[in-house]
């Protein structure tokens, strides 16, 4: 069979790499892909980003299954377009993807269905948002309502930081009051009014909990934990993720059961009850307090990045079988809850190498030396790379994710950093403490 993966990042490289390992697959297309996917056997990049053209491509190539990687394609309705042409595709519809594409939608959904999360208010008026911050204790969290590539969240330790975040996301109160009133957001609006969600600060330890859903049933994947902050010691600005590891020790069996019972199943049931059944990867970003109580920090409507790299590095079950079951007509394949996933018993840890200036102003075009650097139990997944005159160069913020297996998090960390040290590009940034919370445990 032929499979198509939509996207160009590290998550998509990992998906294509794992799908290509299936004996059922003889070709994986990645649209548009990157320099890493271009070098993989059985994988072919396709220079198409327009979704309507990708539908025609999939039709012409008789693609049996399409997998959507990035959130932007989901929010743009990729799944709706493919399904309308009778093509099998794995991912949520545009309506269901609002769990990620709109923070206010997600928070309202959780409140309506009794799913534990932080208290919040939504604002499209900067003056009211500032007044709310003035009346609230710090720390406080400010989130841009729409998609922001993992960088639209500010954990403000002071009110001044929160005010600055509001100004950046909505504009100043003076500018807002001087501007003509914008129309309220309506379903189908192409340019919705800018909004922020302001939440109470949740203390605890974060973890990523990802499941596969067919709209009614779910299959949990291995747990993971990523590092959002740019600098060692979890300092600096939020990023799309500077590294991850799997499994996450903070997700004990008791916490796992709580997440499934109190969060995952009510979310899937609630989306179905609301008329927007959720199919695809549901990513639940958790905050777990000292007593082991999980609350939702955010939903994503796809695999996380760099969580995908460490999870798929450990997965031993044929991913094609899993995604085929999730997209098959009822009764034509084993149900998701009948599948027992097999995992490598070892830990996986991934270190992101980012470009100079990331996350604010990433520099591109720097030549990368030391590639390919794959070794036994170590895989370098490309994210923002391109080929120029036979040389692999940086093409965005997060460039590579060096991912390794080890009998412990410490050993996986050692193996990953050995490979990181063998790769060079000017201005490269990489944290040196990925996995530190698990190692302390």
Automatic annotation (TrEMBL):
Quote the pathway field: Purine metabolism; IMP biosynthesis via de novo pathway; N(1)-(5-phospho-D-ribosyl)glycinamide from 5-phospho-alpha-D-ribose 1-diphosphate: step 2/2
Q: Does the keyword Isomerase apply?
A: no
UniProt GO molecular function: ATP binding; metal ion binding; phosphoribosylamine-glycine ligase activity
Which GO biological process annotations does it have?
A: 'de novo' IMP biosynthetic process; purine nucleobase biosynthetic process
Q: Which keywords belong to this entry?
A: ATP-binding, Ligase, Magnesium, Manganese, Metal-binding, Nucleotide-binding, Purine biosynthesis
Q: What is its EC number?
A: 6.3.4.13
InterPro entries tied to this protein: ATP-grasp, ATP_grasp_subdomain_1, PreATP-grasp_dom_sf, PRibGlycinamid_synth_ATP-grasp, PRibGlycinamide_synth, PRibGlycinamide_synth_C-dom, PRibGlycinamide_synth_C_sf, PRibGlycinamide_synth_CS
Query: Which SUPFAM superfamilies does this entry report, sorted A to Z?
Result: Glutathione synthetase ATP-binding domain-like, PreATP-grasp domain, Rudiment single hybrid motif
In terms of superkingdom, the source organism counts as Bacteria
Domain (ATP-grasp) spans 107-328
Q: Which family does it belong to?
A: Belongs to the GARS family.
Q: What is this protein called?
A: Phosphoribosylamine--glycine ligase
Q: Which organism is it from?
A: Piscinibacter koreensis
